Amino acid sequence: MRKDILERLVALRKKAGLTAHDVSLQLGRTRYYISRMENGVFFPPFHELDQILGIYNSSMEELFYKEFDEFRFETDMMEKFRCLGKQGKDAVLMILFLAYENLEKEKKNKKKII
User: Fold this and answer.
1) Cβ atoms within 10 A of the Cβ of 95, count?
2) Contacts of residue 48, Cβ cutoff 8 Å, sequence gap at least 6
3) Angle 86-113/46-55 helices, nearest 10 degrees?
4) For the chain, how many structural domains are there in total?
5) Predicted confidence (pLDDT) per residue in 23-54, tens digit
6) Where in the sequence is the domain holding 15, given as residue range(s)?
7) Which of 8, 20, 44, 101 could form an SS bridge with 34, CB 3.0 to 4.6 Å?
8) Rounded CA gap, 10 and 38, in Å?
9) What is this structure's pTM?
10) φ, ψ for residue 39 (rounded to 5)?
11) Lowest mean pLDDT, pick from 5-14, 25-34, 48-57, 100-109
12) Residues near 78 by Cβ (< 8 Å), separated by ≥ 6?
């Protein structure tokens, strides 16, 4: 799990003025579930992450902004991305997130070898 992404998720919740209990009620989950998610025990499935971001009045783009920067998207590509429908955006974001995770694992493995 990317700790910085989870920290951004918590920051977005706080920015929205919500407690973890508020989110649990709106999401139909327990407070314990939200706490475990925010503490990095698991990462929510993308359909649920979308619901959570909706509760926070936020977006996947806002949550994953650093990952977009790391992949250095061209402005033209970002404009095309913004034109995608919700399902298309979520699919692209999921692929980017998984690619980012793989890059991080490769970096750690290279450090262990050296």
Assistant:
1) 10
2) 27
3) 110
4) 1
5) 999 999 999 999 999 998 888 877 788 899 99
6) 3-113
7) 20
8) 7
9) 0.64
10) -90, 5
11) 100-109
12) 68
Q: How far apart are CA 86 and CA 84, in angstroms?
A: 7
CB 2 within 8 A of CB 40: no
Is 53:44 a contact under the CB 8 Å cutoff? Answer: no
Instruction: Write down the residue that tokens 């989110």 correspond to.
Output: 23
**In degrees, to the nearest 5, what angle opens at C-alpha 79 toward C-alphas 62 and 53?**
25
d(CA 45, CA 73): 25
- Residues 11, 56: Cα–Cα separation, whole Å: 10
pLDDT, the chain, mean: 79
Q: How far is Cα 63 from Cα 49, in angstroms, rounded to an integer?
A: 10
- CATH at residue 107: 1.10.260.40
In whole angstroms, how far apart are CA 53 and each of 8, 21, 37, 112?
Answer: 11, 15, 14, 36
Residue 72, sorted as left (phi over 0), alpha (psi -120 to 50) or beta, turns out to be: left
